[in-house]
FAD-dependent oxidoreductase
Amino acid sequence: MVHSSRCDADPRLENRVTTPQLRERSISYDVAVIGGGPGGFPAALAAARNGAKTILVERTAALGGAAASGLSILGFLDRSGNKALDGIPQEFMDRLAALGGAPGHFWCPVHNSISPVSSDLVKIVAVQMCQEAGVDILFENELIGAEVEDSQLRAVTVFGKLTNTRIEARQFIDATGDGDLAYLAGVPFTRGQEGTEIMQPSTLVFTVAGHDLERLFAFLDEHPEEMGIKEDYAEGYDVDFLRKTRGHCFIGLTDLVRKAREAGDFSVPRNQFIHIATASEKLLTINTSRVTRIDASDPVELSAGLETGYEQVLEIVNFMRRYVPGFEDVVISQIAPALGIRETRHFLGETRLTMETLYSTETTEKAIAQSAYNVDIHSGTGEGIELSVIEKPYGIPYNCLVPQGVDGLLLSGRTISVDSTVFASARVMGTCMAVAEAAGTAAAIALGSSSRVRDVNVDELRKKLVAEGAMVPA
């Protein structure tokens, strides 16, 4: 057989060789929500239900953000055990409960309340609710550009599967957590804690199966000093509370952690072990990982943080098996698909909520959501947690959602304009969901009146939110 050389190849084939190109497309919506976590999908729901053609862009393959990682949701009850959230957040929990994915809200002397959820059902129910409302979802697309003209955000570009998609919209909502859209649009911001710029640590949570909680509780009966929270505000936080409370968060085993550290078996920069109930009694979420001294808005540092997180997961599992009674046979059920980020950028809005203005008349009268969680600051350099009790819910004014210098954009979730201390309370998922509902509703109102989002009538917005089931102060 004679083989042709390259010079004998059919020259017509050369014309068929082309350089592959990225696909380009352009779409248009009334409202575009960037980010599908607790600060995002409720905003898309609220906007769509109020008549806006809405798209929700999510960088991963699931909606729900941290709620899809296995963490329980905080913020539904206040310090006295009274309900602090309703509307879309409660509707979402009711939908989960109907599928066995949320056993209820449980009062806690440390966290005020714990609301366990099924991480996988979170993903399903969030999509179902968006589909029913007519929200278009674009999964696995990353924000890469923003177009601002005459201080008006006109369009964004997202990238996924070799396709650049340009999205024009009349209103945008930044629910990216780190505020990537606000950053690209040029909204001013600060970083981390006031004065130091130190950021609260990140965490890589994971769930385990094969535990025996009663054996742990029996150990705590014999060693009550291993209940980790001894402050006065935690009165009643004991083994009996853990036994009778289906949805609880255990913090403790300080001596066991110390012994493991002295033996070289525990290097995580945390002085206590934490497990959190899930919707299934067969699964526990472990929130003991602590990744310090990284800026998770930087891709290199974020990647390094994930590497550290994976190392910590294995170390924590080995710690449980060797040191924790009832956890000798635990196995990993799931590792969160992303690093849990507590803090990065803080954006500046028309109003910045501070501890000094938390309960002012103006704050209350302009509030479009409320928060009932405590101020919970995790050390970004050490092992500890600084917790300050919030005795009653406080309001989040609408102008905390309105960024300085850019029109056509609202902040949602943990991107809202608050100081770093208030942020340590307002960052939790329940509060983020309530803020998101307000953001989506405000965007729809602005569209209906052909006004800027910064000019939305706050009294009208508050009345509409209450009419739709949400809770706002006063």
User: Anything to note?
Assistant: The chain has two domains: 24-101+119-194+345-467, 206-335. The longest strand covers residues 23-34.
